[in-house]
Amino acid sequence: MFPWLQENSYKYGPIFRWPGSKEDVAGTVEEVWRCRYVGVQAATEMYGQGLCLEEYVELKAGANA
Fold it and tell me: Which tens digit of pLDDT belongs to each residue from 7-56?
């Protein structure tokens, strides 16, 4: 079931808060049980661009500056 969640949860709005591939960006180790609801649009953008929450927030802040 976990692989399905990794590949499909963004379609419903949650993201995996600290993915293992982003430990250096997120500043913490991977925690596969931690999810955060960010909404379908944000989750889809993050998934499609391979971003963690910190990168997404930085990207959005730069776009609004």
Answer: 899 999 999 887 767 777 766 777 777 889 999 999 999 999 989 888 99
How far apart (Å, rounded) are the C-alpha atoms in residues 4 and 20? Answer: 17
Q: How many CB atoms lie within 10 A of CB 29?
A: 8
How many other β-carbons are positioned within 10 Å of the β-carbon of residue 1? 5
- Is residue 46 within 8 A of residue 56, CB to CB? The reply is yes
For residue 28, what is the DSSP state?
A: S
> Is residue 31 flagged as an active site residue?
yes
> Exactly one of 7, 23, 31, 54 is catalytic; which is it?
31
